[in-house]
């Protein structure tokens, strides 16, 4: 293995989740400890390899999640595990798809670590599924997260705007309510795992914001206005309240980033319409 790009390619083309997780941990250690030093350039696949199961369905055809009863919890945990498996590939794709941007070493450090975090999350959720007599692949999954990656494969700023700063930020919004509902339904095992995922998600959103700002400044753009512009182009449905203001602020996204983009209420940020 001579480059990070080659490592990313090997992860993306590994179909079995266990192998994808193993390779991620190994390559992350190689990168961290200096056995891989070059970023490199290689053609990445449009889509990552996937196992035969789960079957991929449209979101509207997915099994109903719930917070009470084993069947509903399995559906919830399976859906979350599917998101985390996609997130492993997304982190590698962030790190390796955009060599023309010549990002600093810290950018690659961040997304390799995000990939390791997503492996941790996937394995924790697998453990919870096993405790309920289930496994990843038992239920279908949907393809929305990777579709977002495909639609932003042409521009790193767009990728950061849509994936960590919008989709992963939405996870920060919804996870506390999920934890509360699970606790109310007597589930003591899942909430501690979701607390770990939430804490890591805040760091991932923060990485998205940090490198989005870096690119905006490099391109001579005001970051908040650039985010609004890209969201209108790449995520035209707008955002949905309520927001986890505490988590978003901790990630470096104050309300000026997201409140003007609430679905049905898209407004220009200060300065975008020429106002002060």
Question: Could you explain the architecture of this structure?
Answer:
This protein has 10 helices and 2 strands; from the N terminus they run H-H-E-H-H-E-H-H-H-H-H-H. With 276 residues, it is mainly alpha-helical. It has one domain (4-38, 60-261): Ferritin, CATH 1.20.1260. Helix 3 (70-96) packs antiparallel against helix 4.
Key features?
276 residues, mainly alpha, Ferritin, two-stranded parallel sheet, 61% helix, disordered C terminus
Quick gist of this model?
The protein has 276 residues and is mainly α. It has 10 helices and 2 strands. The model is unreliable at 266-276 (pLDDT under 50).
Note the topology.
Elements: H1 4-12, H2 17-32, E1 56-57, H3 70-96, H4 105-131, E2 141-142, H5 144-151, H6 156-184, H7 190-218, H8 223-234, H9 245-250, H10 255-258
Parallel strand pairs: 1-2
Helix pairs in contact: 1-2, 1-3, 2-4, 3-4, 4-7, 5-6, 6-7, 6-8
**Global morphology:** globular
Number of helices: 10
Rounded to an integer in angstroms, the radius of gyration calculated over CA atoms is: 19 Å
By DSSP, the count of extended strands is 2
Highest CATH level, the class: Mainly Alpha
Unreliable runs:
266-276
Whole-number tally of structural domains: 1
End-to-end distance, in Å? 52 Å
Amount of helix: 55-70%
Q: β content, as a range? A: under 5%
**H/E series, N to C?**
HHEHHEHHHHHH
Q: Quick one: biggest sheet?
A: 2 strands, parallel
Predict the CATH topology. Ferritin
């Amino acid at each position: 293995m001579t480059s990070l790009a080659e490592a990313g390619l090997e992860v993306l083309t590994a179909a079995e989740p266990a192998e994808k997780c193993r390779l991620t941990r190994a390559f992350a250690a190689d990168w961290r400890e200096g056995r891989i030093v070059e970023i490199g350039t290689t053609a990445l696949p449009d889509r990552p390899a996937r196992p035969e199961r789960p079957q991929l369905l449209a979101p509207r055809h997915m099994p109903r999640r719930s917070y009470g009863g084993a069947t509903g919890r399995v559906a919830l945990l399976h859906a979350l595990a599917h998101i985390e498996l996609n997130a492993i590939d997304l982190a590698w794709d962030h790190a390796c798809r955009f060599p023309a941007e010549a990002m600093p070493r810290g950018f690659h450090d961040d997304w390799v670590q995000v990939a390791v975090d997503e492996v941790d999350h996937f394995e924790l959720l697998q453990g919870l599924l096993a405790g309920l007599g289930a496994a990843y692949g038992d239920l279908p999954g949907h393809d929305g997260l990777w579709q977002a990656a495909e639609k932003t494969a042409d521009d790193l700023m767009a990728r950061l705007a849509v994936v960590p700063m919008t989709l992963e930020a939405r996870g920060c919004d919804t996870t506390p309510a999920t934890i509360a509902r699970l606790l109310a339904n007597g589930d003591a095992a899942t909430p501690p795992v979701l607390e770990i995922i939430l804490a890591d998600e805040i760091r991932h959103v923060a990485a998205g914001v940090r490198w989005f700002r870096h690119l905006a400044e490099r391109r001579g753009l005001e970051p908040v206005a650039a985010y609004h512009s890209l969201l209108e182009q790449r995520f035209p449905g707008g955002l949905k309240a309520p927001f986890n203001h505490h988590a978003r602020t901790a990630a470096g996204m104050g309300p000026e980033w997201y409140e003007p983009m609430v679905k049905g209420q898209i407004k220009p940020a200060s300065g975008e319409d020429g106002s002060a």
